[in-house]
Design a protein that fits this description.
- The chain is mainly beta.
- The chain is built from no helices and eleven strands.
- The strands form two sheets. Strands 2, 4, 5, 6, 9, 10 and 11 form a seven-stranded mixed beta sheet that branches. Strands 1-3-8-7 form a four-stranded antiparallel beta sheet, with no helix packed on it.
Length: 120
Amino acid sequence: QVHLVESGGGLVLAGGSLTLSCAASGTIFSILTLGWYRQAPGKQRELVAVIISGNTNYADSVKGRFTISRNDAKNTVYLQMNSLRPEDTAVYYCNANLRTTGTARVSTYWGQGTQVTVSS
């Protein structure tokens, strides 16, 4: 069993910063990818940022403002969000593609989501 637990969401003024964290725990053998997605009311869930073997990719809307990083020793991924805008308001979800112990199969896991609200 694997769990992803997010923290760090909240309310911030436009132009402010927040850092999200997501810790993975359980019977993890190896983590292939870690990422952050978000879903605003009435919209589809969208990719924000992903980190794969040290390489990062970002949605165009957050490039230059958000930074994704990971701490492999802690099985934790972070999302540093700067220069936040009202349109960044959404529920942010952590995502991991990983192998659990005893299997070669790659499975996808999601966190419970954390609300980020940016007021103008």
